[in-house]
Amino acid sequence: MAQAKKYKRFSKYLLLDHLFDGGMAEIYRARELTDQETAQVGSKIVAIKLIRQEYSADPEYKKMFEQELKVCFGFIHPNVAQTFDYGEKNNKLYAVLEYIDGRNLKQYLDIMTLQKKKFTIPMAVYITSQICLGMDYTHKFTDKLSGKAYNLIHRDISPHNIMMSFEGLVKVIDFGIAKADTNQEKTQTGVIKGKTSYLAPEYLAEGIKLDHRYDQFAVALTLWDLLFGKKLFDAKNQMAILKQVYDCNIPNPNDVDSQVEIPDELADILLKALSRDPQDRYKDMDMFNRALVMFLNKNYPEFNVATLKEFIGSLYRTEIGNNRDKLKTYGSIDVKPYLNDYKLELTGQLTVETPETAAPQEQKRAQNAATATDPHNAPPAVSPTTPPPPPPTSLRKKVPVKKSATKTGRTKIQRNRPDFARKSGQSSWAVAMVLSIIVPLVTVLIGVDIISYRDYPLVNTYLKQYEQFIPEDFKALEMTHEKGRLMIPNLAPNQQLFVENKLVQLQAARTPANTHDDPDSHADAEPFIELDMYRHVNLRLQAPGKRPVFKTIKLSMKNPVFKWRPAPARKIATGGIITTLNHSMKEYLEIVVDKNSVHYSLPIINKQELPVGRYEGKVWDRERQTFKKINFQVRRNRITKIIPES
User: Fold this and answer.
1) Strand-pair partners of 48
2) Cβ(223)–Cβ(274) below 8 Å
3) Disulfide: which of 192, 271, 300, 348 matches 122 by Cβ 3.0-4.6 Å?
């Protein structure tokens, strides 16, 4: 008799097979473990996304991961993939997602290219209509508990992020870079988020605030792909694609492919959604969907999703059959041993398994069986007075490490210990109790641009009771949404101001009324720029042929205005740098100029001026958080083309 296959387990999920292995995460098809003797329904199939440990330990990635889940956790819609659970276990971030038995639209388009097939017009319109329904839901999503509207923009709609099951069900996935009012993260200057061929022109315009119509443009580009089997914006390199996006010269759909005849009504719908000016597009995704549905019902009244299902079956006939056989095999697995292991894990009697180190737990099961038959094999009983064992290393809170330089130049590591840890008795207990309340409150206040504490009466009560313990900066930050001002008196015409490496212009001065009555009002007569309060802001002042001047400031309610009078810049010899065009838009160059870290988005097409000298830098990949070293020399009045080391 053949020995039954052993499966790995992650928490209460049995990992069935490995679906995808990316640079940052692994995705498994899994089965939820339930007690089948008492469960009213059978266990369901899910997809589990496991983030690799090196990324799970990265605070920035962890923040991004949590923000994505915060955005989409509440979504319940037939055209949006659902998130069931998320958290961190065994030093790994994970998310339990809806399993969609199908492929993404990019995979469908690829296999149709190989088989020389295309979606019919009603199929393409129906799929796009379903995308519109899902996007309209997410754009207008409101949190039921707080009543707060998310005002979400997906920002990465493309065939890659639209799943379609073998049954013809269409679902939007991957809200990893979605922009919502609940997000704390600010988009970095020069960082392009989303796939280049599916950007909207307004993304590349200076000072334009994106709204939900940005996604509408991307959905229309996806419809273009479905109709013609190829991208609207496509070129040999990304800079050429960006130029196409910015110019936004949309050809007449009937001039694209002689084999595809687009009805004029559909062409008008498509061109309206692809308008260069967002104001000329549909008001929202609902209106876009209504136009598509009206066209579909009018011109193809007999179309049914069953037609789409049959077409999908012709593309993946073998794969669908094999997949169904697999699911039947997974359904026949005896989950009781794994469920027992999970129950033992919850009680601390079983070592936690991970997908990397998981081995069949036969030894543990044998010991448990031996214990049941022979009482002498049982572990020693724990006395009620015996102190509990220390928590696993992975669950212990790490003590922050402070580094300080010694006289010898070596780094001395000190561990911060709370004051109450050095004390004993009732005083330390009291301080600990106070801190146990204040720390969560401070955490809430740090995220006040997301949720106001006034929405939560319990938190508001605690604030009134313990506000004397809360730093003034945090209280001021919560109670104001105003910005502070930076002023630079006597700014020379040839000087340029950069805020977080982005060139900005000072706002025109206002002439105050009755300035003789209010001496302080003279401040408004000078050019200024508004900056966020309670955040460290990096400034750089630069003029041709002179060394840059750097400054870091932080505005507050006590000091809402900062007048910067930089020292005269020294004259220096300068040269320029450019890069090759074969850089990814996800990369940026980091170098140190006058002991300050400066970032340049890649590729660098227009010359960037730097002081003469030798530089050691890094070309970072924002997505993978990896870098390549680079060394180059800037020569006087010459342009240097820099190439990273392989």
Assistant:
1) 28, 96
2) no
3) 300
- Furthest-apart CA atoms within the chain: distance in Å: 100
Average confidence (pLDDT) over 367-392: 43
Average pLDDT of span 422-443 = 43
Please write down the HEC assignment for all residues of 562-617.
EECCCCCCCECCEEEEEECCCCCCCEEEEEEECCEEEEEECCCCCCEEEECEEEEE
**If one looks up domain 574-642 in CATH, what number appears?**
2.60.40
Highest mean pLDDT among 57-61, 176-180, 361-365, 473-477: 57-61
C-alpha 17/C-alpha 324 separation (Å) is 14
Which of 614, 618, 635 is CA-nearest to residue 627?
A: 618
Q: Tokens 């870290």 correspond to what residue? A: 597
Distance from C-alpha of 210 to C-alpha of 170, rounded to nearest angstrom: 25
What local confidence, expressed as pLDDT, does residue 283 receive?
Answer: 93
Domain ranges in the chain are 1-99+335-360, 102-319, 402-479, 484-563, 574-642
The amino acid at 197: S
Question: What's the whole-number average pLDDT of the chain?
Answer: 75
CATH of 1-99+335-360, one of 3.30.200.20, 3.40.1550.10, 3.40.1280.10, 3.40.190.10: 3.30.200.20
* 111 or 638, higher pLDDT: 111
CA distances, 335 to each of 31, 36, 131 (Å): 9, 9, 37
Per-residue CA distances from 331 to 322, 361, 397, 535 (Å)? 14, 21, 40, 54
Residue 48 has a pLDDT of 92
Neighbours of 21 (CB within 10 A): 10
The CATH class of 484-563 is mainly beta
DSSP state of 558: S
The CATH code of the domain at 102-319 is 1.10.510.10
Highest-scoring range by mean pLDDT, 90-104, 204-218, 548-562: 90-104
CA distance 233 to 230: 9
For residue 491, give Cα distances in angstroms to 159, 201, 411, 545: 49, 33, 41, 16
Report the b/e string of 103-128 with b at 16+ CB within 10 A. Answer: bbbebbbeebeeeeebbbbbbbbbbb
Residue 385's Cβ-side half-sphere holds a number of Cα atoms within 13 Å equal to: 0
Q: Within its chain, how far is the Cα of 429 from the centroid?
A: 40
DSSP state of 518: -
Lowest-confidence segment of 147-161, 463-477, 490-504 by average pLDDT: 463-477
Asked whether residue 412 carries a pLDDT value surpassing 60, the answer given is: no
Rounded Cα distance, 360 and 341, in Å: 11
Length of the chain in terms of residues written: 646
350: Cβ–Cβ under 8 A, 6 or more apart, which residues? 341, 344, 361, 364
Cα(511)–Cα(525) distance, integer angstroms: 5
495 three-class SS: coil
Report how far residue 65's alpha carbon sits from residue 86's, in angstroms, rounded to the nearest whole number: 10
> Of the candidates 607, 473, 491, 605, which has an alpha carbon nearest to the alpha carbon of residue 543?
491
